[in-house]
Request: fold
Amino acid sequence: MAKANELIKELDSLKNPQKAKILAWFFKTGKGQYGEGDIFLGLTVPLQRSVARKYYKDLPLPEIKKFLQSKIHEHRFTALEILVMKFEAAAEPEKKQIFNFYLLNSTRVNNWDLVDTSAPYIVGEYLTDRPRQILHKLTRSENLWQRRIAIVATYAFIRRDDFYETLQIAKILLPDSHDLIHKAVGWMLREVGKRDSQVLRDFLRQNYAQIPRVTLRYAIEKFSVAERKKYLAGKF
Reply:
């Protein structure tokens, strides 16, 4: 508990009220928005990662859970950075424990930056050589963040030139109503395209009618200007 208190005090000592206001606007914390109720200290990502490196060896999972329950965004972000660092340093039995802990607390990974900084490096990495049914369960969750975890976690597979799960989950999520899912799917498709542009082109042609505009724009971002215009016009 002493280490947890030290971490809280250190994060609080670094707060920047002016930047906190900007972040609260950027992460949509207003009434009815996806980040409603989130409170910011105004810390940068590099600063939080630097702090996390100081504490990750000594902060146990029960204390990390308390940070994930916090309404303060940087408490949750730093806790997830610590969790990623623990996972990377862990032996096999502990990796499974961290993976399960992450899933049990996944509804507290509840903003897009929190998902993106953790899902590929815990969920994705753990599942690279294991059955992946859990991702399809998350894909069909009513919880926005669990759906984003499902698609973003596949970044770990993409980096190994394994695209199957990404394409399967992307197709399921194409009808999703939320902009943050549209963007995440487009991002992962773009990453596939950076590895194999033909796989991406085939997916776009086969599913073009169902692809949201935002998803398409993200997916084709690395195409030439001329080719982007063709895809946006449906002439390819």
In short: The chain has a mean pLDDT of 96. The first helix runs from residue 2 to 13. The chain is about 70% helix and 0% strand. The two ends are 60 Å apart (CA to CA).
